[in-house]
Amino acid sequence: MILRRFLFDRITETWMVTALVTILLLPLIIGIALYLKALPLFEIQNLPHLIGSSEWLPTDGKFGFWPFINSSMYVTVLSFIFAAPVCLLAGIYLTQFASKNLVRIMQPVMDILAGLPSVIYGMWGILIIVPFVGNVLAPFLNINSSGYTMLAGGIVLAVMCIPYMLNMLIEIFNTVPIGLKEASLSMGATFWQAVKHVVIRKSYPGIISAYGLGLAKAFGETLAVMMVVGNRVQITHNPFKAGYPLPALIANNYGEMLSIPMYDSALMFAALLLLVIILIINLVFRYFIYKTKTR
Amino acid sequence: MYLQNSETMTKQAPDITLKPKVTSIVKINNLNVHVGQHHILKNINLEITKNKITVLLGPSGCGKTTLLKCLNKLTDLYTELRVSGKIFIEEDDILNTQKNVPVIRQKMGLLSQLPYPLPISIYKNVAYGIKLKGVRDKKLIEYNVEKYLREVGLWNEVKDRLHNSPTSLSIGQQQRLCLARGLAVKPRIILADEPTSSLDPISSKIIENLFRKLKKNYTIILVTHVLRQAVRLADNVVFMYYGEIIEQGHSKDLFKNPKTEKLREYMLEGN
Q1: Which of A7, A156, A170, B3 has a Cα at 20 to 30 A from A102?
Q2: Which residues make beta-bridge pairs with B57?
């Protein structure tokens, strides 16, 4: 009996360690695999040229990834600009000001929004956002645009990120002990001052990590963005023009264009780039969190 | 005296005017607090004397903390609480006044069960309240921060790390920091909600000694369930049980001759 329990204990522990190691190794294995697959590309072009060049002529063997990286960053930053303040304000309102009934209604709404498949967001983007950008916003600003633009991508992406970021922010604001707020109020702060000086301040690291995770998620989001962003290889800083983010490049072409030499490696390199950039975003935000925590 | 100045006040609370020589700073009339169906404070009538330590004594969950929070309107934070009755702090009926709530709250410094230093530096914790009062002069703020840190005996311990986070302090030091920042808004009353319950005996003693010193200038309302602390510190005692005031009076009389069975029982258990 004792032996059995001992063995059982041992086996469960081994399983847990195995599971943990797998999780830890997974990104490494993916990274290595992508690197190995992308290796042939490095033999014809060096890394700075691959990233910095904007010449995308696969049939001539010219692979410049800058337009894709540029589009990805542009769409992500746009979505962040739309989503971040909305989430922050909504999060503060829901946790500090709103009645409990409203919170009770909002929780399932956010869960549903977070759980919607991204193709639905894409369809919604095509039906609503693209015509809105193309027929309303662009004419209003005297711009000629089809509507399939980076702006549409940014808006759709922002809407997709909101439930995700908002959920995290609500969790974070709720962990601020009420005693802290009481302390601030008892010294004569107004309610808003207490929220600003205490709740938001105490939540700094949390807000940053929520933003970081939201940003990383936005950067990697594929389908919905691909459906509205126009998918044209060009470098532009005009939000009313089409873009072509990295994930869309992979999703659109993998399995179709592989007869072109090196195309396979190029897509693997695109995936590797995506992985590395998301890693960098995460590391940068970790650093910010560390900085604000030790301040 | 001040009560006679206000006509409306005399109408609302005629019984006060019968005692012109009141030295009470807080007067509570028929205070009731409900949460849903629960009646958690029942008909509280209480006067709190100036420059004395008044101890609210009673078992956990009897409504002491709620009563304390009614005094500086922190009950506003808990929307489920329904508060009715009258609380006079000096001349203001704070439950029915149009006056600015933050201004009312600044008449009272709060010391809670756990120290809650704000997520800013030690220096800024004390400066926070001063700045909220509208003081902008840096020299004056600096002077006051030092003054109040000295008043709670913390200055020598923190003067070399004023700009560090208060989380680097021990919990007893944090509690004194919270006291200092409470004093910095120049309150008349100190509301202390079991301030020593999370502290070691030595830190508790420091806080208790501070209270004895501070009562010269402040009125202290101390919530505790520790009988010995009440005996050590109290000038007046209010014994509460399940939302009601069972007995109140001068500490010496009350503990020598408890009139009610409840208090006798509590004293027996407490000793």
Answers
A1: A156
A2: B224, B239
- CATH assignment of B2-107+187-270, given 3.40.190.10, 3.30.1360.120, 3.40.50.300, 3.40.50.10490? 3.40.50.300
Write down the residue that tokens 């600015």 correspond to: B100
Residue A186 contacts B, CB cutoff 8 Å: yes
Query: Positive or negative, the Cα torsion across B191, B195, B197, B202?
Result: negative
- Give the distance from residue A182's alpha carbon to the nearest chain B alpha carbon, in angstroms: 7
Three-state helix/strand/coil letters over B205-234: HHHHHHHHHHCCCCEEEEEECCHHHHHHHC
- Tell me whether 0.85 is exceeded by the ipTM: no
B119 — contact with chain A (CB < 8 Å)? Answer: yes
In this predicted structure, the answer to whether residue A52 has a pLDDT above a threshold of 80 is: yes
Domain boundaries, chain B: 2-107+187-270, 117-186
Reading the block at residue A58, the tokens are 């696969």
CATH numbers and ranges of domains, chain A = 52-294 (1.10.3720.10)
Tokens representing B178?
């919270």
Q: 192-211 in A: which are within 8 Å (CB) of B?
A: 193, 197-198, 201-202
The minimal CB distance from B74 to the residues A182, A188, A201 is found for A182
Q: Cβ distance A275 to A256 under 8 Å?
A: no
The amino acid that residue B251 corresponds to is: S
Closest CA to B180 of B139, B149, B207, B202: B149
B98 CA to chain A: closest CA distance, Å? 15
CB contact under 8 A, B165 and A189: no
C-alpha torsion A143→A149→A154→A157, nearest 10 = 150
Residues 6+ apart with CB under 8 A from A274: A72, A219, A220, A246, A247, A250
Query: Sheet of B24-35: strands edge to edge?
Result: B38-49, B24-35, B81-89, B92-93
Nearest to B88 by CA among B102, B70, B111, B106: B70
Is the minimum CB–CB distance between A101 and chain B shorter than 8 Å? no
Q: How many CA atoms lie within 13 A of A224 on its CB side?
A: 30
Cα–Cα distance for residue pair A241/A236, rounded to 1 Å: 7
Q: Which chain B residues touch A198 with a CB distance below 8 Å? A: 118-119
Per-block average pLDDT, block size 10, for chain B (271 residues)? 43 47 80 90 90 90 89 87 89 82 88 90 92 90 92 90 90 92 91 90 90 91 90 91 89 87 84 67
